[in-house]
Batch of 2 targets.
Target 1
Amino acid sequence: MIAEAEKILQTYYGFPAFRPGQKETISNILELKNTLAVMPTGGGKSICYQIPGLTLDGVAIIISPLISLMKDQVDALNSLGIAATYINSSLTTGEQQQRIQDIQANRYKFVYVAPERFESSYFVQLVKRLPIALVAFDEAHCISQWGHDFRPSYRSIVPNLKALSNIPVYVALTATATEEVITDIQNLLHVDHEHVINTGFERDNLAFHIVKGKDKQSYVRSFLAERKNESGIIYTATRKQADTLFDQLTAKGYSVAKYHAGLSEDERKKAQAAFIQDEIQVMIATNAFGMGIDKSNVRYVIHYAMPMTIESYYQEAGRAGRDGEPSDCILLFSPQDIQLQKFLIEQSLMDDEAKRAEYRKLQAMINYCHTHSCLTSFILEYFNDTHGKKSCGRCSNCVNRTDRTDMTKEAQMILSCVKRMGERFGVSMTAKVLKGSRDKKIKDFKLHLISTYGILSNYTEKALTEWIHFLIAEKLLATEEGRYPTLRLNQGSVDVLMGKQTVWMYSTVIPTSESADYR
Ligand code: ADP
C-alpha cells in the first residue's frame, strides 16, 4: 500500500520523495493504527493524512481549530482535483446545510471542520452514518491541557468521537509537543508508543538570537531600515505594546500593519490580507496573529518582549522561514519582561496547579534568555529532542562564542551569598545584597550584616541579576517555581564552590560595571 502512497505523492503532488516521518506516518495510518505525528512547521504534515485519505475508502474528516486555514487547505486540494470542503462558522446556515447534504451524498473525500461542530449531536449523527476513512486532529497540542494553547472545547469532543464505532483510525498532528503533551494525546486517542512519529523539531534554516540591554524601539528601527524589503513579524506581549510600537513606527514613517484581538474583525482581516499579499512587509501583533497563517516568505520574527513559554516562542518564531530559506528569530529581552509575564499568570483565571505549571514553563523561558549555550540545542532539549547536534553554529550564542572569561570567582561569591542568606530569598534580593543596596527590606531582614553584603558592589544590580539568571540557566543554581521563587544551591553550585567546576562567560554577553546598557 505504501507503494500506492508513493505514487500518489508523485502523481498528485508532484514530489519525488517523502520527507522524514511522512512515510512512517502514512503506513501506520494505512494499517489503521492510531498515529501521532510530531513534525516541525513546514515539515509536511498535511500530506500525512491526505494521502491515506485518498487511499482509504470513505471520507476523511479533519478537525482543525484554525478556521482561517481551512479554506486554504480546501482550495489547495481542489486545485489538485480532489473533492474537499469545509464547514465552519464563517459560512451561512444555508451554505452549511448545502455542504452537509453534499457530504451525505458522498461528494467529498475531505471535510475540514472546526471542533465545535462535534458539540452538535446532529453533526455527530451525520458522521455516524458516513463511511469514514479517518479522523485527523490538526494542531493536536490544543487538545492537551499541557499544551500551550489548550482549548477545552477541542478536548471535550474527543469522547463524543470515540463513542462512534465507524471511525477506523485517528491521526493527531502537531508541530509542538512536549513529553507531557505527547503522553496526554496518546492516552486520549489511544495511540501506542510505537505509533508516535517524532521527527524532531530542528528547523535548520532558523537562526535564533537573544538581544539584551538595548533600547528595543531603536533596535527595531535600525533593524527594519537594514532589512527593508523583507517580510517579518514583530510580536509584542500585550495589545498595548502593539499599539504603542505601531504608533511609534508609523510616526517615524515606517509602513507597518498591526493585528490583535482588540481590533475589529474588519481591521484584522485587512491587516492580515495586506501582510499576506506583501503590500505591507512588517506585521506588529500579539499572539492572536499567526495561528494558521501560511505565509512562507517571512524572513524574520522579532519578539519585542519575552513570551511566557518556550512552546509558544518556538511556534511563533517558527513562522519565519517556512519556505526553508535562512531566517532570523530574535528575542529582545529586558528584565521587566519577567515581571510582565508573572503579572499575566497572576491575572489569569487558572487554578493554583495550572499556575504552578505555567511558572515552571516561564522559568524555562527565562533560562533560555540567559543561557550561554547553543540556543537551538536549548530549545530541542526542552522538547526532549535528542536528534539535534550539540551546537547549531547559527544562533547568537554560537556566533558570539569568541573569547570567554573565567568568572568562577564571581560565581562563588554569588553562590556563597545565596547560602549565607539562608536560601530563603529570590533573585532581586540576592542582587541587592551583593550590590550592597540600602533598600529598606535589606535592613528589615538584617541582610546588611552578612559577610557577602556588598561583595560585588562594583557591578550594577542589573548586571548581578543577569548573572544570577545565568547561573540558574546553566543549572549552577536552583530556583523554585512561583511568583516569588527562592534560590537554592544544587550539586552544580557545590561543584563551583569547591572549585571543581569553572564558570565561563562569553565576553559579548558579560554585563560589566562599565557597560552603559547595564547602568
Ligand atoms: P506543516 O503543516 O507541517 O507545517 P505543510 O503540510 O503545510 O506543513 O507542508 C509544508 C510545505 O511542504 C507545503 O508547501 C507542502 O506542499 C510541502 N511538502 C510536503 N511534503 C513534501 C514532500 N514530500 N516533498 C516536497 N515538498 C513537500
Target 2
Amino acid sequence: MYKIAVAGTGYVGLVAGVCFAEVGHQVTCVDIDESKVNVMKSGVSPIYETGLEELMQKNYAAGRIDYTTDYKSAYRDADAIFIGVGTPEQPDGSANLSYIATVARQIAESVENDCLVVVKSTVPVGTNDKVEQFIQDFLVNDVKVEVASNPEFLAQGSAVHDTLHAERIIIGTESKWAEELLMKLYEPFNLPIVSVNRRSAEMIKYASNDFLALKISYMNDIANLCELVGADVQDVAKGMSYDARIGNKFLNAGIGYGGSCFPKDTKALEYIAKQHGYELRTVKAAIDVNTDQKTMLYKKASKRLITFNGLKVAVLGLTFKPGTDDLREAASLENVPLLLEQGADIYAYDPVGADNFTKVHPEGQHGKGSMTYVSDVEEALKDANVCFIFTEWGEVKAVTPGKYKELMRTPLVYDGRNIYRIEEMQEAGVEYRSIGRKA
Ligand code: UGA
C-alpha cells in the first residue's frame, strides 16, 4: 500500500482521497481552509454527496485517512501527490491555473523523496508539461519528481460510486516508472485502465465532457424542431436509443446543461482551439444552443402571459441537477432574475439548494418583485398563477398532476425537465408546457 497526499478537498480531491483510503492506501488530504479541515476531521463532509460521509468516518476511524493544512508534512514523504484543486473559468473562457501553480510550488518546496505528482483537475492540453517544468524549477531537494495526468470522470451526486466503479481509469504518463506506479496505485480498484501519453489524457477529459454536452445540445436542438413540426422529443429519443451506436443515455432534452463541468469545459476547449488558430465549430454550436435553451421556458411563458408583475410564481428546483446543492450554471440563475425584473413574486422550493440560492438572491423585495423560500412544494404552489420546474428532484416528481389543479390559482405549469406525461396533465385540467413536445 502507498502513501498518498491529495491537494484540494473539493469534489475531485476529497472523493479521490476517500476512495484511495477505502481500497487500503494511507491518505492525507490537504486544504488551506483550517475550519474545513476541522469539519472533515469530525467526520462531516463539506459537500453533499451520497455515501461520502460514511466512508470518511469509516476510514478515519481505521486510521487510513487524515486531513491537514500542513502541506509540508503531507507532501514530504508521499509516494504520490494527487492535485484536485479547481480550474475555474475566466471571463475569456480560458482556465484559471493559479491554484494548480500554488500547489506545484508547495510540492517543489516540500518533497524529500522521489514522488509522482498526479493532476486530476481538468487542465488545458499541455499544462502537465508546464507543471512538471515548474516543479523542477522550484525543487529544493535532489529528488525525482514526475507529473502524470489522471483525469476524473465522476458526476456530482454519484461521485463515490463513479470512482469505485469507474468505467475506465485514464492515465497519461511520460515514463515507464510513472506508468507502473499509477497502475499499482489503481490495482486494488480492479478497473479497466487506459494508458496513454500526458497530452492525450488531458484531451480525453475535454473530448469526453464536450461530447456529452454536444449530445445534450443536439437533443435540445431537435426538441425545438420537434415542437415546430409536431413531433415528441421523448418518443424521438426513445426511438434513437435502441441503436447501440447512439445509446440510451444523455438524450434528455430540457433547459440546458449546467454544473461546474460542461459549461466550463466546452468554453475551455473552444478557447484552446482558438489559441491554435482553429475554430471548433461543433462545440461552439453546443454552447450557443445551451445559452438559448436556459431561458426557453421563460420566453414561452412571456408569450402566454401579458405580464409577470404581481403574479405568484412557483419555482420548483434551483440546483443544476438533482442530488446536489450545487447551483453553478443552473438555469434557475438565469430565469429568476428575469422573473424578478418583471415584478414576479417568486416562491421557490429546493430540498437542498435553497440555502445556497439565498446567498445570491436573499429573501425579500427585489425591485418590483420578491423572493420567498418555502420548505415544501405545496406551499410554493398554493394560489400560484404559474409554476416553473427547473430541477427534477424526487420531491418534485412526486407531485401528482391533480395537486397543481387543486392548489394553484391558475394551473399553468412550465416543465423544463419533461417530468409529466402530457395526457395526465391534460386529464387533470392543467395547462402544461414542456420541452420538445406538443404541449
Ligand atoms: C459531468 C460528467 O457527467 C462527468 O462524467 C464528469 O466527470 C464531470 O462532469 C466533471 O467533469 O467533473 P456533472 O457535471 O456532475 O458531471 O453532471 P451530469 O450528470 O453530467 O449533468 C450535467 C448537466 O447536464 C446537468 O445540468 C443535467 O441536468 C444536464 N443533462 C444531463 C441534460 O440536460 N440532459 C441529459 O440527458 C443529461
